[in-house]
């Protein structure tokens, strides 16, 4: 599924959004993705689209610290959790976006989700919510953690 998410971002970033699910399904199939993977990705994206102002408050004003639940600990790796909190502290994401990213990470039901995959989830969530991402943010989220580039 992560290959599909990356394909969507790379293919549709300039368009601002991806096509409707039925058209997108055909395009993904034509691009060579498997039907089961396409269905999983479309379900994941559909659930992301449901995360709107009705699901979350407009602003989450707090001065506290976010503690992770046991399920979050088991499904999101330590490095990914640390980066998520760092991203919020650095104002890369809001507290609401953090919660949406956690929701989408948990939806995958993947044990010990790594930093690279969390960054891709973060990128898709931010793209879905803002459509006009900073090139520096995109670069930060796309650069693999094994990169030897200095920042």
TrEMBL record:
It holds the Pfam family DUF494. It comes from the Bacteria. Belongs to the Smg family. This is Protein Smg homolog. The lineage of its organism: Bacteria, Pseudomonadati, Pseudomonadota, Betaproteobacteria, Nitrosomonadales.
